[in-house]
Design goal:
globular; about 270 residues; alpha/beta; 2 domains
Length: about 270
């Protein structure tokens, strides 16, 4: 699929859209063209019925080194307000889109995910890491406070105290430690990474897309509000919506006939 830039590659196969951050010479550090292309591809994925699951990964030996330090110098004509507005916009069109995308997302980490790159990985629903990969917030090392939602995502995954530790000290978290902390769902050898990721993604792509959409909204709203009544009410609404889908009727029929259901995402 055409993305408009070499900084992001896209491939759609068997319902799985694989987005590859493609600046290996810069450890896949973010660039303006990469950010815009990622935003555009996520918008397309949201509405394209052929896309049932999204993989986000990096070319070469890294996932994403975060912001490109060399390209961060603002124009002399930019005011602080201009820079803040641009940064907020970038957050909303990337990290927020990843988090809210109504389809399952998997980040596959062949190597380091640092700074905002770690934030992008954490914005996905699940993560799989090569056993040689690592994560680090890295912001304190360069005098930054953090961006792209990392404080939110990390706090939800490991709790406030551990998230503060990882931000304040910029610890390097290896794959096995990340697994213990709940930062990643799976760890495998580097040579297995993409095959295992695609295997899981294709399983999700063959699943009940409408139910997944509502599951994701249930989780996100539960985390956002923290209110049990709201959670119960939205779960009830979504549960009944799912009961009216073709996929639900197919699942019931398959259960009666003792066969594997064939979901169509309707």
């Amino acid at each position: 699929m055409e993305t408009g830039t070499d900084h992001l590659l896209a491939d759609l196969s068997k319902g799985v859209l694989t987005l590859t951050l493609n600046r290996p010479e810069a450890r896949n550090a973010m660039s303006g063209p990469m950010v815009d292309a990622l935003s555009n591809m996520l918008s397309e994925a949201e509405l394209n019925r052929e896309v049932r699951c999204v993989i986000l990964t990096g070319a070469g030996k890294g996932f994403c080194a975060g912001g490109d330090i060399k390209g961060m110098a603002p124009s002399k004509d930019d005011s602080v307000d201009d820079i803040i507005a641009r940064q907020r916009h970038e957050h909303h069109i990337t990290a927020q889109k990843l988090y809210n995308l109504a389809k399952p997302t998997i980040a596959a980490l062949p190597g380091a995910a640092a700074g905002a790159g770690m934030s992008w990985a954490l914005a996905c629903d699940m993560r799989i890491m090569a056993n040689t990969a690592m994560m680090t917030t890295a912001f304190a090392n360069v005098g930054f406070s953090g961006d792209h939602g990392g404080t939110y995502f990390l706090s939800q995954l490991v709790g406030a105290a551990k998230a503060r530790e990882l931000y304040y000290f910029s610890n390097r978290v290896g794959a096995e430690e990340a697994l213990k902390l709940g930062l990643t769902n799976w760890v495998c050898g580097p040579e297995e990474l993409m095959n295992k990721t695609r295997e899981m993604a294709e399983q999700l792509a063959a699943g009940p897309a409408v139910a997944y959409r509502y599951m994701k909204e249930n989780f996100n709203r539960a985390l956002a509000s923290g209110d049990l009544k709201d959670c119960l009410d939205i779960e009830a609404t979504h549960h009944i919506h799912c009961s009216q889908t073709e996929d639900h009727r197919e699942a019931i029929q398959a259960f009666v006939e003792k066969r594997t259901p064939v979901f169509k995402g309707r």
